[in-house]
Amino acid sequence: MDPYITEWLNLILRFAHLITGIAWIGASFYFVWLDNHLEKPPAWKEEKGIKGDLWAIHGGGFYEVAKYKLAPPQMPQTLHWFKWEAYTTWITGFLLLSLMFYVGAESYLIDKRVADLTQMQAVAIGLGSIIVGVGCYEILVRTRLREHGLLLGILLLILATALSYGLTQVFSARGAYIHMGAIIGTIMAGNVFFGIMPSQRALVKAVEEGTSPDPAYGLNAKVRSTHNTYTTLPILFMMISNHYPITYNHEYNWLILVAVIVITAVIRQFFVLRHFGTNKPALLAGAAVAVVVLAYLIAPKNLEPSAAQMQQAVNINKVNTIIQERCVSCHSATPSDDVFKAAPAGVMFDDLAAIQQWAPRIKARTIDAPDMPFMNKTQMTQDEREYLALWIAKGAPIKE
Q1: Pair 178, 97: CB distance under 8 Å
Q2: d(Cα 164, Cα 351) in Å, to the nearest integer?
Q3: What's the CA gap between 386 and 301, in Å, rounded?
């Protein structure tokens, strides 16, 4: 596919995915907040079957929201359903995954240093991992285990750990992280499709027919809705993870991802409890400490030059040669790379002044968390990275 067309499709799908994701997660956050802030209604409302109500002000207007114990005496003509936010988020996400990591598998998904896969093999493994992950979840959540939340949560974390490890053994680090996001995102959308919506349809049908809804529908929906609540923050991290090689470009990237899942779930627990009126700052403080500890444990190896090395002279021509041979094929006003036809992030190294300007970024991406050159496509050596580190440590001079 023409790189220019690919870039536009990428922009459109990413933008659509962002908008629909905000709509879905925003609605989810709002209804969790709403449920947890409902107050006991006055007697005249209780007589009408109202379980709780809430008053709010927003945008210059007053809002009165009421929740029925079961249903209103008469079903309204217009009933708003919240489902397409989830469905369109999944659809745009899958299309974006297909465009970037399946059509562009050779560039983004396959890392020959990890596994020498063909495009078809990589796509098959990617789709297979989503099917396996979602399938295992559906099997577990449909058993009696759903009545034992903690045990089910532990089993799901073990499943996530196994998938995370397995994916990092076959895909590029970014591809592995994105596929974990795809698995969890598909599970979340599936929870809406397989659990929450059937429960709501059964409730509406029962009210219309004057019968009692099957309580199993409600239990299924509650369990799945709870899971969606706790996976919201982890999947948001996975959506932005490709911008942060300090997490994925590490020997234990699979374990880092599991740690992030746990930490973000704990953060979500703090806010869930807070909505119920229970304030446990220890959860938030513990998560903050865990982030600091994680950052310390995965900090890049110290490549700062020794005192003896600092005495060595740096040849700016050699620095420029390294950059020109290893980086400029992408990072230029006129890239020659077969994938990137515009400089990624607008970073260009066409002259010494520009190289000096971007020295901190060069250090971050080629030395501290060496994910550049991309997939090490131009085969930058460790000696070259250390030479760049020495140049930057000496102040990134561009004059001899």
Answers
A1: yes
A2: 41
A3: 12
Instruction: Show the tokens assigned to 215.
Output: 């309580």
Nearest to 63 by CA among 42, 34, 25: 34
Distance CA 111, CA 170 (A): 8
All residues at 6 or more sequence positions from 270 whose CB lies less than 8 Å from its CB, including other chains:
280, 281, 283, 284, 287
For the whole prediction, is pTM greater than 0.70? yes
Tell me the per-residue pLDDT of 192-219, one tens digit each, with 9 for 90 and over: 999 899 888 888 888 888 777 777 777 7
Indicate left, alpha or beta for 50 from its phi (over 0: left) and psi (-120 to 50: alpha): beta
CA atoms of 185 and 168, how far apart (whole Å): 18
Q: To 5 degrees, how large is the angle CA 22–CA 24–CA 25? A: 65
Q: What are phi and psi of 334, to 5 degrees?
A: -130, 75
Q: Which residue type occupies 242?
A: N
Query: What is the phi-psi region of residue 376: left when phi exceeds 0, alpha when psi lies from -120 to 50, beta otherwise?
Result: left
